[in-house]
Design goal:
The chain has helices at 10-18, 25-42, 46-49, 67-78, 102-122, 124-139, 169-187, 217-230, 242-257, 260-274, 296-312, 346-350, 363-371, 377-386, 396-412, 420-435, 450-456, 458-462; strands at residues 57-60, 82-86, 157-159, 165-167, 194-201, 234-241, 276-280, 315-318, 321-324, 329-334, 354-357, 391-394, 445-448. α1 packs across α2 (25-42) and α6 (124-139) packs across α9. It starts with 9 loop residues before the first helix and ends in a 9-residue tail after the last helix. β3 and β4 form a beta hairpin. It is 49% helix and 13% strand.
Length: 471
């Protein structure tokens, strides 16, 4: 259930996070411990497993310092169901907007998709064989009406026109032809040949307007799915190439081989025991310090009170079944520029016992962000131009200058953290990206030097009115 990479030690988890995220060691340590504790709980004595609840984490830090990336990479390392929501999108029950339970339903949906994908991969070979048979039947239909059972002499017989038994030579010839074409299909010699296939046609489901009084979103969705499953599946004929037919049919045939009841049960278990919900912008639903309790603050506090039972542990109905949230790991994050963590209602504060303050990024951090991570912006641009057979490279001095400029712009205008590097890199490379391949052809080599950075970004450095560079 929660295996894959969940057995990594906290130090190994931090090492994995280091490949993508620069700095923020305290935050990485805390999320690594939280992830390892998921595995530890499942291997604790059975009578203690229900008693051990996760230590939810509240990350405090400005935008662009890595809060979301830490949570997202953590879920990837754990191969766990993960969903990200913004607290500011929720509204108190009874108002227009998303209700807080929807984040749990999103988590279950993600978990179901993960289990389905894995189960389909497990039956991929069997499904591919079924698809091959369908393609072969479309190319060379099997002979019908033949006596397939072998005779005593080992030769099949069928009725002749005069009623006498004759050797089933047509059947044998058909089978030999089919086997020849089967080999051609496997060798990929017929990929462009067009055939007629039947594919399931999406009906779009049944739309129930309104619903019974008191029927929640999950119940309504479940009723729609149940009624939809009772309706006969519609198919339509399409003429496509064999390559396209294989793509269309493989997923369809694999779905027939998996037991959706088992998928739902496993998905619920995974979501309950390994699920991670990241609640961003939680500071936006905190009441403002030193202000009265009226106006928007009432709605904000209402959202907090709706969040409380979900985070504390409750049962939520989804179209796949009821899920208990007791052991879901919640990671909340916010900049808290205006409000403070203490402005959250005390009950909600108590459900996030681990608080981590992320540090603002320095020039050195910017340099490392451009140079070290596996998904560094520089490596992304290098990969983009490599598709045009153009080699792009950066001198370290150029990266240092880019880091300085990004830091300076953040200091002068709103600090958006590492996201500022996107602005700087885009301005630096846009002309090059436009000129490839019309003016800069294949096999060209482009070296980004400090001098080139200064030349292309001089306006950004000199311009005191930097508002145009705010994202």
């Amino acid at each position: 259930m929660i295996e894959s990479n969940a057995f990594l030690t906290p130090a190994q988890i931090v090492a994995e996070l280091d490949k993508y995220i620069i700095g923020q060691h305290e935050a990485k340590r805390n999320v690594a411990i939280a992830l390892r504790n998921r595995w530890r709980r499942l291997h604790a004595p059975a009578d203690m497993q229900r008693e051990i609840v996760p230590n939810n984490i509240l990350m405090i830090g400005s935008t662009g310092v890595g809060k979301t990336e830490i949570a997202r990479r953590l879920a990837s390392i754990a191969d766990a169901p993960f969903t990200k929501v913004e607290a500011s999108k929720f509204t108190e029950v009874g108002y227009v907007g998303r209700d807080v339970e929807s984040m749990v339903r999103d988590l279950v949906e993600q978990s179901v998709n993960m289990v389905k994908t894995r189960r389909k991969e497990e039956v991929k070979v069997q499904a591919a064989q079924m698809v091959e048979d369908i393609i072969l039947d479309a190319l060379i239909p099997p002979v019908t009406g033949s006596a397939n059972a072998p005779s005593r002499t080992g030769v099949g017989f069928a009725n002749g026109t005069d009623g006498n038994q004759v050797p089933d030579s047509d059947h044998e010839l058909n089978e030999r032809t089919r086997e020849k074409f089967r080999e051609k299909i496997r060798r990929g010699e017929l990929e462009d040949r067009k055939i007629d296939i039947k594919v399931e046609q999406g009906s779009g489901g049944i739309n129930i307007m309104g619903g019974a009084p008191g029927m929640d979103e999950a119940s309504l969705s479940g009723l729609q799915d149940m009624l939809g499953s009772m309706m006969p599946k519609k198919t339509r004929k399409r003429r496509v190439t064999i390559a396209e037919a294989r793509r269309l049919l493989l997923d369809e045939e694999a779905a027939k081989l998996i037991d959706m009841d088992e998928v739902k049960e496993e998905a619920i278990r995974n979501a309950e025991n390994a699920g991670i919900i990241f609640i961003d912008e939680i500071d936006k639903v905190a009441s403002r310090s030193g202000k009265g309790g009226g106006g928007p603050d009432v709605s904000r506090e209402g959202v907090q009170r709706d969040l409380l039972p979900i985070v504390e542990g409750s049962s939520v109905s989804t179209k796949y079944g009821v899920i208990n949230t007791d052991h879901i790991l919640f990671i909340a994050a916010g900049a808290f520029h205006v409000a403070k963590p203490s402005d959250l209602i005390p009950e909600l504060q108590g459900r996030f016992p681990i608080r981590v303050e992320l540090q603002s990024l320095t020039k050195d951090d910017f340099f490392l962000i451009l140079k070290d991570p596996k998904n560094a912006l520089t490596k992304q641009y290098e990969a983009l131009l490599k598709a045009e057979e153009v080699e792009l490279s950066f001198e370290d001095s150029a990266l240092e200058r880019l880091a300085e400029i990004a830091f300076e712009v953040n200091s002068e205008v709103e600090n958006i953290g590492a996201r500022r590097l996107h602005t700087v890199m885009s301005r630096l490379l846009n002309d090059i990206l436009f000129d490839v391949p019309d003016k800069i052809g294949a096999n060209a080599r482009i070296l980004i030097t400090r001098e080139l950075v200064d030349e292309r970004l001089k306006e950004m450095v000199r311009n005191h009115d930097l508002t145009q560079y705010i994202l």
